[in-house]
Design goal:
The structure is a homodimer.
Chain A (H helix, E strand, L loop, with lengths): L1 H10 L14 E7 L7 H14 L4 E7 L3 H5 L3 E3 L5 H7 L21 H13 L2 E8 L1 H16 L5 E6 L15 H22 L6 E6 L6 H5 L12 E4 L7 H15 L2 E6 L27 H13 L3 E5 L2 H5 L6 H19 L5 E9 L4 E8 H4 L20 H7 L11 E2 L2 E2 L20
Helix pairs in contact in A: 2-4, 2-12, 9-10
Chain lengths: 442, 442
């Protein structure tokens, strides 16, 4: 399904081309949006390095401090103050080097003021390119800016750089950020499964790992990669797409423990019971009656204890999974960089209101190319896991899913280390002097 | 402190030497005990490879299936059936390849039958060497076996191979298994801190990570390595050694968030309140009144929400931390192997009732050597963190602690990968034919 969609995109040529005034070299604005990933900085690296290689055609790259908020408040970072080595190091540094934010611009009708402010800031700093690095919401924002640019007659080319660990952007075969989380979850599940297998005779028999994914089970699905032909591991996946059936789940765990002596469970934070409530939302209270924060993993572990009397351990990967640059997928790093690079190249060709995409050409050997998609088709579309990716019993993945996922975790791309610790870069993040007199209240 | 102790050991020559009958080549027994680690198999590799290099002096290495239980039930694994490549692969495979167990032998007085059974099995399989790979409890067992060997007049050389992520064995400067957990926690804390720093402007301001360590704060201390001169990160460590003071803790978090915009908290699972109760033991109940499994991290996160109104995220590393061979410390892998190798070499020199130790020679550059300690001094002694390793405010580590920890996480030792996944070995684990008629009930 994902493959077909991607192919379609490549063939289509829909986007309106805005010709930037060639005479005047415009600056670029780049911002990071939403939850950060292990490789979003690799996209930033791709944007900045490609812009630097095209100095005659594109001016400075100004980054928004804390994402789009930096543009609204005219808090811009001058990336030209960073050395080539520092920018290169972004490729192996997780998190958002310029700061990200969770700040969704309202619709044009609801808050036109915000969009006008953006144009005002862009104009003040001679910005003609808008590179927005994020997920579905930011694709929507990016699209609106390109529309506003037209209606306000301020020429700006808006290009969206895809990023999301949730892997839920449409048209692109996969999203930068996802492959590295998938690798982390697959590797961690394999390692923890080896551990519990060693202990199962007299101690822990079930290990439960909670992973991200409120709506789509892509990350949870990666847990199934822990097991393969060479290393068979009993893994139960709990997808948000499959309503949780406690009796069926416990039976499955019981069967696997009887057969293998142990099993691992990978539970998505987004799993819901038949009542539509999140498993993690159990209305827990502590001894003082305070509401207690739950997680899906302890709830599932508790069921295993109460229902089967088996010794369990549970873990919650949380930020560790999306920040784990130390075990990033090389495919993912390469693609994240390529998306940033392509965004600038598309912009220099006069493209507007598009998003570079990853187009899968073949599985074995894995081959991919850069495509593009019109933002009108990307904004507000969430790509769920295809039904034929989840096994019939609802607890595992199909061969089609395995074939889709495997290339995305392929290859290692280790950061450099010093004294046993990864050398991640902290940029200077020098502010661009403000030019506007009026302040903007968020 | 640790250094002094280690030096002392090296000078002492206390152990009784049992001269194995040179004429007859005896087999060896090897077993893994207690919680497994990322590098316990590297010790197994050291034992087996060194025994194989000394074929004229030592016979086969039989491993206990599921640890000492395998010896009691005469369920032995013939490691000679494994290829050289498979044994070599143990060096990069986490978990216990032969199975481990949590099974503490009682005292000789309480259950002499168990010890007699061990001797019976050893005699049946011509076993003259007992290599026991574990923590404090297994050092004790190992010591008892050497004593029994004497009193029962069955010659067996008992050598303990140190292993514990808790780093709490005495005399040895550090314990194989700890360095890799420390590296995992340091790296993960740095990565998650970079993540939360990116998000702090509009979203998460505090990240809480729960780590292992019921009694000693060694693992929690490693979280402080996330921050260094190049990469200053505000980290609060909660040690089991320091009674938890909620008001002081919240003040500390508040101060750091005000100063840096965010902070990370590394909380040991063993942290106790002033009432002596584990923080994690909050008597939680779910909507149906069922007791709910807690963790220390969600409890701490809840305090931050209630007390400071800050947005938080929390993670629980659990088995991921001790199984994470993908980010093992090279120092740790080398030392784990060296301990296994030394155990066999000591045995061949006629040593008995000892444990090879790691002796720190210098910090910069880090140099270490193999020493030895008599089991009489190792058994039932728990090494806690020295007081001068914890900062005065109780929330961090001192320079002395940093100097101690840093070399232990140094170096990377990546496993080989196939299709994006680490190639960990699963041994054939062929059973040795039983020779005894009587079964043993555990």
């Amino acid at each position: 399904m994902a493959k077909k969609a991607a192919k379609k995109t490549v063939k289509k040529k829909t986007t309106r081309k805005t010709t930037a005034k060639k005479a005047e070299v415009k600056n670029a604005f780049y911002a990071q949006s939403g939850g950060v990933t292990a490789v979003i900085n690799a996209s930033a690296c791709g944007v900045i390095e490609t812009a630097r290689k095209n100095k005659g055609k594109i001016g400075k790259v100004y980054a928004g401090r804390n994402g789009i908020i930096g543009a609204l408040t005219e808090d811009l970072i001058d990336t030209s103050k960073e050395s080539a080595a520092a920018i290169r190091a972004l490729r192996h540094t997780p998190s958002g080097a310029f700061g990200s934010c969770r700040y969704k611009l309202k619709s044009l009708e609801e808050n036109r003021r915000e969009y006008e402010r953006l144009i005002e800031v862009f104009e003040a700093h001679n910005i003609g390119y808008f590179f927005y690095n994020g997920g579905g919401d930011s694709a929507d924002t990016c699209h609106k800016i390109s529309q506003l640019s037209k209606s306000m007659n301020y020429p700006i080319q808006a290009i969206h750089v895809p990023k999301t660990v949730d892997n839920d952007l449409p048209i692109t075969d996969n999203c930068p950020g996802f492959g590295s989380v998938a690798k982390y979850i697959a590797v961690s599940t394999r390692e923890a499964s080896f551990d519990v297998a060693s202990m199962a005779k007299t101690s822990t028999k079930v290990f439960v790992l909670e992973v991200m994914g409120r709506h789509a089970g892509w990350i949870a699905a990666a847990g199934a990669l822990a097991s393969d032909k060479d290393t068979e591991i009993p893994v139960v996946i709990l997808f948000p797409e499959v309503p949780f059936d406690q009796a069926k789940f416990l039976k499955r765990v019981d069967d696997l423990v009887k057969k293998h002596g142990y099993c691992s469970v990978v539970v998505s934070e987004g799993v819901k019971g038949p009542d539509g409530k999140f498993l993690s939302d159990q209305g827990l209270v502590d001894a003082f009656g305070h509401a207690q924060l739950g997680g899906a993993a302890p709830v599932v572990a508790n069921m295993i204890k109460d229902g089967l009397g088996l010794k369990y351990h549970w873990g919650v990967a949380d930020y560790l999974q999306r920040a784990a640059r130390h075990i990033a997928s090389k495919t993912d790093v390469d693609q994240a960089y390529a998306m940033g690079k392509a965004a600038v190249q598309f912009a220099l060709k006069g493209e507007n209101a598009i998003m570079p995409t990853i187009v899968r050409k073949s599985n074995k050997p894995y081959k991919w190319a850069v495509g593009k998609a019109p933002l009108s088709k990307v904004a507000n579309v969430e790509k769920m896991m295809p039904k034929n990716y989840i096994s019939k019993d609802g607890f595992g993945i199909t061969t089609a899913c395995r074939n889709y996922l495997t290339p995305l975790i392929k290859g290692e791309d280790y950061p450099p280390y010093k004294d046993g610790m990864p050398k991640y870069v902290r940029l200077k993040n020098v502010a661009v002097p403000k030019k506007l007199k009026n302040k903007f209240e968020l």
